[in-house]
Design brief:
Blueprint lengths: L10 E3 L4 E6 L2 E6 L12 E4 L4 E3 L4 E7 L2 E6 L4 E6 L1 H4 L5 H4 L8 E5 L11 H11 L7
């Protein structure tokens, strides 16, 4: 099983609360904890078939909890290389426990790894989620 380890962070986010971590010619991708708010457990994950080339924005997985469903999308154009089998083999809740690490959804080969157009840096993403949903700060 691949354990997603960030050695030299090339971490970016989408405006739809997904992350992509570029590592040489591949990238890990998954969904952010923020997108899972309200999910107490994961009942099912349906991966999109077939693997292969996908355009940015195409659905790669649908995640369900009761009547709620969220979708994970391709963050960039590229080839879907591998899905996270650990999610299929029973431990669906790793997605809740560790969504931005071992709960990765797929490994992809970006068509153009140098093109970060439309992606947010971690600081940009943090400021978006903090201002969009203000949290009460202790004084």
């Amino acid at each position: 099983m691949h354990s997603h380890q960030t050695l030299t962070p090339q971490l970016y986010y989408t405006t739809d609360h997904e992350w992509i971590d570029f590592q040489d010619n591949i990238a890990y991708t998954g969904i952010c904890r923020f997108k899972l708010l309200g999910f107490n457990e994961i009942h099912s994950i349906a991966f999109a078939e077939p693997q292969g080339f996908k355009k940015r924005g195409e659905i790669i997985a649908r995640i369900k909890y009761n009547e709620y469903q969220i979708e994970a999308h391709m963050p960039v154009d590229g080839r879907l290389v591998q899905l996270n089998d650990a999610l299929n083999l029973g431990d669906l809740n790793v997605l809740l426990r560790d969504p931005e690490n071992n709960g990765w959804i797929a490994i992809i080969e970006p068509s153009n790894p140098g093109n970060k157009k439309g992606l947010l840096l971690p600081t940009q993403y943090d400021s978006r989620t903090n201002t969009k949903f203000p949290r009460n700060k202790l004084k």
